[in-house]
Amino acid sequence: MELDPSDSNSRVVDASQFSKYRDAGALVSKAFHQVASRCVPGASTREISSYGDNLLHEYKSSIYKSQRFEKGIAEPTSICVNNCAYNYAPGPESVIAGNDNSYHLQVGDVTKISMGLHFDGYTALISHTIVVTPPPQPGMGPYIGPGADAICAAHYASKAVANLLATNNSDDPITGSRLRKIVDDIASQFRVSVCPGSRIRRISRFLVGQPTIDRLEEDQNTKHAVEWPAPEEETRKADVTNSLDPANVLSTELNTWHVMPKEAWLIDISMSSQPISSLKEHPDLKPTLYIHDVNVSYMLKLKASRSLLSEIKKEKSVFPFHFGSLSSERNLLGLRELTDRHILVPMPVLISSPSNVIAREELTVITQPNPSSDLLCLTVPTPPSYVKSDFSLEDGTDAALICEGINVNIKSININV
Amino acid sequence: MSTSFACTTCTVAFNNAESQKIHWKSDWHHYNLKRKVASLPPLSAEVFAGKILSIQKQNEEVQKKAEFYQNCEVCNKKFYSEGAYSSHMASKKHRDNLSKFQRNSRIKKLQSEDASSIASSTLSMGEPVVDSEIEEEEDLASQLTSRAISLSNLSLHGRESEPSKTELATSIPQSNEASKSHLFTQEPTPEEIEAELARRSSQRLSPRDCLFCAASFSSFDTCKKHMKASHSLYIPEREYLVDEPSLFDYLAEKISIGFTCLTCNREFKSLEAVRAHMQQKGHTSIAYDTEDEQLELSDFYDFTTSYPDYAVKQDETVVEEDGSSGEGDWEDVSDDSDNSSLDSLEMGRVPIADEYELHLPSGNRVGHRSLSRYFRQNLHSSSTAVGDGASIHQNVARRAMSGNARAYRQAVETSIAGVRDGRKNYSASHIKSFQDQRRREEFANKMGIKNNTKKHFRDALLQ
Predict the structure, then answer these.
(1) CATH number of the domain that A150 lies in?
(2) Subcellular localization, per the record (chain B)?
């Protein structure tokens, strides 16, 4: 296998990269908490997401002013409610004749806020689920129901994975199958299922699983990731080994990689209250998030699309961006051609059936940055909303033990940088 | 003496009328009449008789002379005078021919014996040896052909007799000289050609001989210098010439065996003739203008150093040794692909659309003209994307796709990016149906009819 030595070095986080990771994590967490506080009944999702983007823009401008590397929004603020899974970030297009047609939050909405920031490609992504509640009143009970199950499952699953990564050592390496198994365990204990699009993956500079590059990384065989839904051959193989010898599954399952120290990992787990095989695009909402595929080149015909592309090349990097953040309205004429030619890849609003509720937790962690410390969580884990699930982790199971995390030392960064 | 019966013309008198009438009918009287008209005196009977006698004698002699006829079969000559005949028979030429003729007649006799024996034994139809004709024919060429025919007959029937074989063997060298003069008029047999070739190659020029004059030198180099200095011989594309001795060998062969001019490729009958031609016309250069002429000499040349990817290949091998900048090379190669229909990319493994492209040994790719609009577009290289992120993604993509996938992507990027299936189908049918050719022909047809300049060829079969 061909491996660029410089590239494989970049997988391991050194000191200067570490500070960038930490700054990105701190700032995005700070922004997140401010955005989360805005999620009150009646708030417009358009306003919240634009507020989040403005915050991110402001924060990223405030730091590394003298440096000339790329920095910016790694994921525009998206506010996905209930059965919406990903990428709902309404922009100016939702305002029609002065009316804000974007979704307005209501009490009891399971709201997933995700955002991300990067400095020089070192990226911190965060995603958290909150339940929209009226201002706390005495005697108000917790949020219950399928949504609560999903929220709890997502919370515990992300925590368990983080704990598992923290216990990583060379004697007992963390493998993909172990990560997959613990998430699946927790989902089954809460009677929910893991939503497609969930992933636990190693990230590196500029490579955080963007859809434009994700498949290529897979070809390259350097991608260390656990993804849901599981690739077909993996499940098939797991079935075979299960039928042969259930006890031996972990050791026999194909594990070409395991977690190493000083690696950045992205934990992005979504739990849906109902089992779903795939998400579908929203029929009416047009995608507002786009990502530039730098590996496609085409001679564009429209002047508008050419100038739009040159602006995107100048302003945006390889991360998703909100098309509302592009300066000139006129050039948006060229958007169609750019997407037709696959130069821009739209990130459609993905939804499941209306009765379904999806919860999502996303963390960025760095494994064992120092030999003494165990795990650094770049994004400040937000305490879950006041929810109560009918189910809980059964005592004695692996998942419960890991979630308790007795011997686990997780350090969180200071939000006030 | 009565004068009643007299002839005044001849001044003679007769006894009676009867004798007078006979006289008037006589030749003597007629002769004297003619003399009288010519106002000459009449001749007497005696003189006239003497004259007649002398004329008769002269006539006899002429007659005798005219009756002389001698035919010399050997030399195929006829003689009407004895002196000429006797002098011919005494001549050396006749004696030479005689000896030849005797030998040939012996051969003929043997052949006719053979032929008749074959004819009698096999009763084959259309026996090609027609004895009577051949015996009359003195032409050596026809003898030779008949011998060839009889030879083939012999081998066909497998009844070769020892004496005829030896006879043939001895007769061949002797016949060569005779056949020389007939080489260009008669159709030569394989044996003749071989013999001629052997004769010519025996006098072939050595590398130390000048091609254009009779001079000979001590070494090949001095010979070359001489040809360059005094005949101003110029060797085309000298820097790519790899096999100089073979080239001169070939040229010498061409001149001394083929008797062919180097410049105009005209054939002559002898080495002297072709040399004279070349010197007179100044044809002392090697023809190297047309493609055929270049191909003729292509064995002695090696043009690989002139190929565009030659230097690149060498660079690559150098680069691979240090191993780190191999990636960069790729970009450079694709960057300078401004003449996009002739890209010097890594060839041979581009899987796309073989039917639309030709892969030249030099590494160039030639696209079909039906896709020219795609080949001609000047694509900005994707490396124009700014920033580290873009370059990292491109690196990942480039490394991810190894071999065919990468080549495919390269091909897509540089040549037929954005060619849709419909267009490809159009191209396929374009190529399949010879559309270009047909379109040209139809246009020529249309213009011909419109301008009344269409060529009309009558069908030869209908005439």
Answers:
(1) 3.90.230.10
(2) Cytoplasm
Tell me the chain B residues in contact with residue A120 when contact means C-beta distances shorter than 8 Å.
388
Q: Name beta bridge partners: A269.
A: A361
Residue A123's domain comprises: 15-285+348-405
pLDDT digit string, tens, across residues A171-229: 777 788 888 888 888 888 888 899 988 988 888 888 888 888 877 776 666 778 888 88
Cβ-based contacts of B323 with chain A (< 8 Å): none
**Residue A325, pLDDT above cutoff 70:** yes
What angle do the packed helices B45-66 and B27-37 form, to 10 degrees?
100
pLDDT tens digit sequence for A91-150? 887 787 778 888 888 888 889 999 999 998 889 999 988 888 887 777 777 888 888 888
> Residue A2 domain-assigned?
no
Q: Is residue A270 part of a domain?
A: yes
Residue A245 pLDDT > 60, yes or no?
Answer: no
Hey, what are A218's tokens?
Answer: 């897979």
> Which chain B residue has the Cα nearest residue A310?
B385
The reply to whether A378 and A340 lie within a common domain is: no
The pTM assigned to this predicted structure is: 0.51
Chain B residues touching residue A219 (CB < 8 angstroms): 400-401, 405
Closest by Cβ to B388, choosing from A70, A295, A341: A70
Domain count, chain A: 2
Residues A353 and A311 in one domain: no
When CB atoms are compared, the residue of B379, B381, B399 closest to A220 is: B399
Tell me if B396 and A69 make a contact (CB, 8 A cut-off): no
- Which of A347, A362, A383 lies at the terminal end of a domain, its last residue? A347
Query: Nearest-CA distance from B455 to chain A in Å?
Result: 46
Q: How far apart are CA A235 and CA A180, in angstroms?
A: 11
Residue to test with chain A: of B334, B399, B410, most A Cβ within 10 A: B399
